[in-house]
Amino acid sequence: TLEVVLENGASFPNPVFIGDTISVVTEVKDKRPSKSKPDRGIITFEHQGINQHGEVVCSCMRGAMMMRKAT
Fold this sequence. Notes:
This protein is mainly beta. It has strands spanning 3-11, 23-33, 40-50, 56-67. The protein is elongated. The two termini are 15 Å apart.
């Protein structure tokens, strides 16, 4: 699978401390075919890092161009 990162931005709403346990959750927020490359699509992901208290410590949205499944 080919992946090209198209955008990247991050926020850190809460601090991370030594000894914290961080879990990561990724959600696909959107998908669409590429207008210029019919064999590829644009996927928008949201990633969140969550500490052991359930607090979001980092978050980012990013887009990626990926190969599409052959039909």
